[in-house]
Amino acid sequence: MKPIISVKEARKLLGKEYANLSDERIAELVEQLHELAKLSLDMAREQRLRKRLSKLAPQIRHIHGGV
After folding, report:
1. How far is CA 55 from each of CA 3, 7, 21, 22, rounded to the nearest angstrom?
2. Is residue 53 one of the residues assigned to a domain?
3. 2 within a domain of the structure (yes/no)
4. CB-based contact 16:36 (threshold 8 Å)
5. How many domains does the chain have?
6. What is the CB-side half-sphere exposure of residue 61 using CA atoms within 13 A?
7. What sign results for the dihedral spanned by CA atoms 14, 37, 40, 32?
8. pTM for this structure?
9. Rounded Cα distance, 67 and 64, in Å
10. What pLDDT was estimated at residue 22?
11. Is 23 among the domain residues?
12. Please, which residues have CB within 8 angstroms of residue 7's CB and are 6 or more apart in sequence?
């Protein structure tokens, strides 16, 4: 899988504090942060869906005669 950003770009963003990390470690960090971001988005989408469904539940019960 192609990384979301290059090691060079990641080093610029991370700054001098991470200069001692190898390119491989930086690449791993980029991949881990990308996965974490995707999980966070999935969780946010799930929460939005649950919120929408909870608002719709009374309407659905009403339509189906309280079933």
Report:
1. 39, 45, 48, 50
2. yes
3. no
4. no
5. 1
6. 8
7. negative
8. 0.70
9. 6
10. 98
11. yes
12. 23, 26, 27, 30
Q: Nearest 5 degrees, angle CA 34-CA 40-CA 41? A: 90
Dig out the tokens for 47 from the structure: 């929460």
pLDDT score, position 3:
79
18 residue type, one letter: Y
Alpha helices (runs of H) in the chain, residue ranges in sequence order: 7-14, 23-63
At 66 the pLDDT is 60
Cα distance between residue 66 and residue 21, in whole Å = 61
> pLDDT tens track of the chain, all 67 residues?
687 999 999 999 999 999 999 999 999 999 999 999 999 999 999 999 999 888 887 777 677 766 5
Token duo for residue 8: 């060079």
In degrees rounded to 5, what are phi and psi of residue 17? Answer: -60, -25
